[in-house]
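Budget justification aside, the reviewers requested a transparent look at the raw inputs and outputs of the sequence design task funded under Objective 1. We therefore reproduce one unedited record. The lines immediately below are the C-alpha cells for a 124-residue chain.
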C-alpha cells in the first residue's frame, strides 16, 4: 500500500466499502515521498455507512508517520466500533520520532472502548 498517491488511497477505500465482513486488515506500506495530501477531511469524505462494521484487527507495517498514514489511523480508530487492536511497526524513513507519533495516536478518538494501539518497533 502506498499512502503517497491518490489511486492507492482510493483503492483501499474501495476495498473497505466492498468488504463489509472484513475482520482483519493487514497493510504493508511502501516507502515513498508523499505527493498528494489526503488529510482527514478527504478520507472522512470517502467513508460510507457500514464500512469496517466488523473490523477488529488492523496491522500496519513499515509506517513512516506521514500525514496521510496518520489520518488513516485516526479515521479507523474513530469509525471502527468493534476494533480491538491496531498494531504498528515503523519503516526506515520516519518523519517524526516514535514518541511524538505515539503521543499523537493516543489523542485520537476511539469508536471502540476496547481499541488498543500496539507499537511493535521497527519492521524486519
Amino acid at each position: 500500500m502506498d499512502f503517497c498517491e491518490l489511486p492507492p488511497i482510493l483503492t483501499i477505500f474501495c476495498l473497505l466499502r466492498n468488504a463489509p465482513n472484513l475482520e482483519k486488515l493487514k497493510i504493508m506500506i511502501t516507502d515513498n515521498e508523499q505527493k498528494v495530501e489526503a488529510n482527514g477531511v478527504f478520507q472522512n469524505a470517502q467513508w460510507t455507512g457500514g464500512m469496517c462494521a466488523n473490523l477488529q484487527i488492523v496491522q500496519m507495517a513499515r509506517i513512516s508517520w506521514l500525514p496521510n498514514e496518520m489520518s488513516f489511523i485516526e479515521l479507523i480508530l474513530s469509525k471502527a466500533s468493534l476494533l480491538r487492536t491496531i498494531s504498528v511497526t515503523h519503516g526506515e524513513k520516519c518523519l517524526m520520532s516514535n514518541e511524538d507519533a505515539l503521543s499523537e495516536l493516543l489523542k485520537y478518538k476511539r469508536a471502540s472502548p476496547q481499541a488498543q494501539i500496539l507499537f511493535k518497533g521497527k519492521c524486519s
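The chain has one domain: 6-122. Strands lie at 24-28, 57-63, 85-90, 116-122. Computational costs for records of this kind are itemized in the attached budget.
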